[in-house]
């Protein structure tokens, strides 16, 4: 579904990502781990077209996407979350999830017909928002301001925001950070449920226990290079991974 071939990125003299190859198949949950500064976020930024690569190729659904904009890939179904959830703290959960169609300056006649379409779309969106909030146990808080949510709830709200756009693959950037153990179990359940429903994931996280619980396969980066890939069992027993990531030699 997603293929990355020989992808590289330099920042001045720093080679943040070096010739990385990676793939994610439909229905998989794939992890991306590595110590601080390994290049994980840079790789995510390139895959989601927030950053242009210096060399290499990215394909999504058998199509090269390197020349696309970040907006283009969103419309193709490739979406991502951020380490720090981006939402609207002063808006309610409902408002955060409602998508408002852009005003495009149509005349009154078109606006009349479009108005009907927008009303229908808004009703559908509202129903979808309510369904998502219920699935993520946030419905009771639907009228709360987002700024009153816990870190874990904000991560779930961020996940809901991306789900509103019907992604085919979701890139999750540190979904477990700042999430307490009880909520982490719920996060695991939600991700596994979404996979059962057909979602595909590429996930960055420093919490290896979390990564081992949810992932089918894992890639490990260090100093911008891929040093290992394999099942959770293979990665957890890999000496090079232990050495660079856990500081165990
Ligand atoms: N915009 C930038 N300008 C200059 N250097 C950058 C930039 N972004 C990242 N880097 C450098 O590239 C390297 C990889 O950084 P990156 O943030 O991708 O690592 P990471 O694995 O995501 O780290 P962390 O786990 O701490 O988030 C680091 O040396 C970092 O300092």
From TrEMBL:
This is ABC transporter ATP-binding protein. Residues 2-248 form the ABC transporter domain. SUPFAM superfamilies: P-loop containing nucleoside triphosphate hydrolases (SSF52540). The lineage of its organism: Bacteria, Bacillati, Bacillota, Bacilli, Bacillales. One of its GO terms (molecular function) is ATP binding. InterPro entries: AAA+_ATPase (IPR003593), ABC_AA/LPS_Transport (IPR051120), ABC_transporter-like_ATP-bd (IPR003439), BCA_ABC_TP_C (IPR032823), P-loop_NTPase (IPR027417). Keywords: ATP-binding, Nucleotide-binding, Transport. PROSITE patterns: ABC_TRANSPORTER_2. The keyword Transport applies.
């Amino acid at each position: 579904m997603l293929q990355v071939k020989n992808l590289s990125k330099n920042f001045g003299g720093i080679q943040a990502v070096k010739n990385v190859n990676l793939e994610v198949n439909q229905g998989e949950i794939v992890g991306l781990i590595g110590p601080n500064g390994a290049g994980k976020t840079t790789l995510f930024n390139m895959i989601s077209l927030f950053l242009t690569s210096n060399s290499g190729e990215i394909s999504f659904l058998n199509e090269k996407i390197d020349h696309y904009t970040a907006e283009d890939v969103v419309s193709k179904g490739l979406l991502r979350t951020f380490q720090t959830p981006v939402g609207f703290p002063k808006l309610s959960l409902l408002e955060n999830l409602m998508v408002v169609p852009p005003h495009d300056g149509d005349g009154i006649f078109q606006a009349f017909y479009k108005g009907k379409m927008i009303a229908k779309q808004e009703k559908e969106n509202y129903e979808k928002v309510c369904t998502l909030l219920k699935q993520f146990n946030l419905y009771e808080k639907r009228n709360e301001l987002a700024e009153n949510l816990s870190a874990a709830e904000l991560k779930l709200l961020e996940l809901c925001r991306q789900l509103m756009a019907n992604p085919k693959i979701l890139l999750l950037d540190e979904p477990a950070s700042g999430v307490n153990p009880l909520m982490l179990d719920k996060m695991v359940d939600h991700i596994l449920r979404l996979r059962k429903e057909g979602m595909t994931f590429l996930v960055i996280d420093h919490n290896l226990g979390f990564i081992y619980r949810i992932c089918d396969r894992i890639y490990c980066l260090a100093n911008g290079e891929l040093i290992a890939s394999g099942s959770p069992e293979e990665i957890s027993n890999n000496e090079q991974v232990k050495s660079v990531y856990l500081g165990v030699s």
